[in-house]
């Protein structure tokens, strides 16, 4: 397995693939072509024998000069529980530190228990939202109406 | 009317508004919260008496150091044909020049004749795609399967 930068040509392969990985949900709208053109230097592909088995799309915040943001991460269903997301995050941390970013943020849904556990294990802390549900601090309607979100933040050492 | 930078708090107002402006289509997925957090310094709101009547969401390309990209532009239906998009574009050009960007790119659909005429009038040229339809150079499947696109490019003086 190897990790490389995202390329423009990955779009045609990855865009239909992520819908498959999410069991037929239309996820590809969340990953428009612009990320494959303009944020390639902080976005990562993991391959196994030339096949894409994972990706991380992230960027350096343009408005917050010490922050980087992880937008979208996916792992092929057959390759889960093999620390692939962890390896992608670790490489992302390494890359953004080279751009002098020491804060990494990301957003997840309060219902996504796997994501919450993963980010907690990776050393992210939850930012204090406006309500608490099951010990989880939540931002009401952060992603739009009825779209509560958890905001995760990690300080890089 | 005045033009100001996009703010985080605009999301809750603008996100449902754009669906209205596009006649009930779900457009807000194309404008996720991340733009309101991390690309505020190159994104613009036009207001009239405190009401949002137009916006331009754009960014400095992270991978292409001389490029800026216009992602999404909208004008309130009651305020169209008043050069509001032109004013937003002109301010965007001014802003990105301050970040040493001299190329502005954007993408549109071959069926969007209003957008094609607008960009041509604004001095954008079409990049050479892989096929020509009605004298328009088109990139096949650029935005995904059956999603042909025109790529516009303008050199700033």
Describe the structure.
The structure is a homodimer of 157-residue chains. The first copy, chain A, contains 4 helices and 9 strands; from the N terminus they run E-H-H-E-E-E-H-E-H-E-E-E-E. In chain A, the strands form 2 sheets. In chain A, strands 1-2-3-4-5-9-6 form a 7-stranded mixed sheet. In chain A, strands 7-8 form a two-stranded antiparallel ribbon. The mean pLDDT of chain A is 96. In chain A, a hairpin with a 6-residue loop joins strand 3 and strand 4 (67-75). The first copy, chain A, has helices at residues 10-21, 34-38, 84-98, 113-121; strands spanning 2-5, 44-48, 51-60, 67-75, 103-108, 125-126, 131-133, 136-138, 150-155. The first copy, chain A, is globular, with a radius of gyration of 15 Å. The relative contact order of chain A is 0.13. Helices cover 26% and strands 31% of the residues of chain A. Chain A has 2 domains: 1-99, Gcn5-related N-acetyltransferase (GNAT) (Aminopeptidase, 3-Layer(aba) Sandwich), CATH 3.40.630; 102-157, no CATH class. Chain A is of the alpha+beta class and 157 residues long. Chains A, B: GO terms for molecular function: acyltransferase activity, transferring groups other than amino-acyl groups. Chains A, B: This is N-acetyltransferase domain-containing protein. Chains A, B: Residues 1-145 form the N-acetyltransferase domain. Chains A, B: InterPro entries: AcTrfase_GNAT_prd, Acyl_CoA_acyltransferase, GNAT_dom.
């Amino acid at each position: 397995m190897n990790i490389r930068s995202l390329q423009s040509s990955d779009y045609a392969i990855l865009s239909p693939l992520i819908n498959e990985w999410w069991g037929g949900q239309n996820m590809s709208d969340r990953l428009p072509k612009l990320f494959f053109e303009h944020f390639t230097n902080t976005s990562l592909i993991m391959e196994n024998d030339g096949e894409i088995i994972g990706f991380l799309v992230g960027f350096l915040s343009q408005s917050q000069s010490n922050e980087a943001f992880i937008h979208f991460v996916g792992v092929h269903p057959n390759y889960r529980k093999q620390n692939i997301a962890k390896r992608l995050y670790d490489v992302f941390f390494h890359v953004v530190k080279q751009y002098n970013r020491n804060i990494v943020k990301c957003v997840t849904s309060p219902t996504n228990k796997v994501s919450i556990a993963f980010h907690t294990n990776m050393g992210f802390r939850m930012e204090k939202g406006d309500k608490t549900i099951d010990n989880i601090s939540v931002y009401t309607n952060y992603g739009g109406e009825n779209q509560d979100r958890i905001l995760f933040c990690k300080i890089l050492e």
